[in-house]
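User: I'll paste a sequence; please echo it back and then give the predicted structure.

Assistant: Echoing your sequence first, then the prediction.
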Amino acid sequence: MGETRRWVLVTDGGHGGSRDCVAAVRALHAGGYRSAVTVAPGTSPAAVSRYSRRRIPVPHVAQDGYVDALRAELERRSYLTVVCASEASLRALGEAGLHLTDKTKLNEAARATGIDIPVSRTFTSWREVLAESESFTYPLVVKPAVRTFSALRVDAPERLRALDLDDGEIVIQEWIEDGLHALSGVMWRGHLVAATAERWLRIWPTDCGLASAAVTVASDPVLEDKLERLLEDYEGVFCAQFAGTRLIDLNLRVHSSHSLSVAAGVNLVATHCDLLNDMPVPRMRARAGFFYRWFEGDLRHVVQASRSGAMSRASAVKALLPHRGAAHSSESLRDPGPLVSRLIYGAGRVRMPPEQRAQGRSETG
């Protein structure tokens, strides 16, 4: 295989140290690939995984020049592919399957393939949502049709009216109490080549968050068939998230819990690269029983649950006990830079006024 067929350009459109980006770089290294990571101005040297072989300065994804800078790098050097590690970078580059990142279009496509979806209503503006605030059943979930902020749980009309959200299509979705789980995989030429099924034990934030603790489980072949039909025209890595039987989100990119797939024997990112290299790839399914923890998120979940009385002190201690062989998020003694950078960032946020912390969440979420 030629040397250039081993290089992959990874971008999250920001500082290159997001959990998704770090997961991609580590997985590529584990699969024998070399990664170059794009970094925006002001990036700390510690933020990027040490397994990245190159750091490519580019503007932030929200600034002019981001796409041009990436194209210039692709012309300057040969890469096998570009791995997007954020929704913003995916949309900026106009990657295939973008219609499925629109919640309204995703719901329509999912319904057509027999996948259950939450009861939802789409509004063209936040003003329209506020006008209907008294007609909704609470609690509910507020989401942008195209991700510009994280999903929010709202418990009452007055709390909805207290929000100040940007205009754009908004989805109001029923609140679902059922357990959360996900299926990640690689689609290739209409087939689900590799897959990892995981059950989420805890999430952070506790209402509308991502897995802070999860375990791999046996994959459901019926669900696999439905997702295969939904994604038949897409090729690459994805992560579909469910509440019970209902599809609540779909990411057409590497996801922050990708290390769980690697630990369970299915390196999704490297598998996609192998397919791009015309290498023979067998059908792969992750082994059940592997544990994952995002320590920062899990610690926050457990502390909040303990303080609120939702979890006893004994249960909290048990939840945080180490698991032998666990897969972790950005926490790694072999690759400590991203964690150190996160700790420094967190310490700085503690000293910020509350209004500035809220602004930071909006900008980074």
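The first helix runs from residue 19 to 30. The chain has 13 helices and 16 strands.
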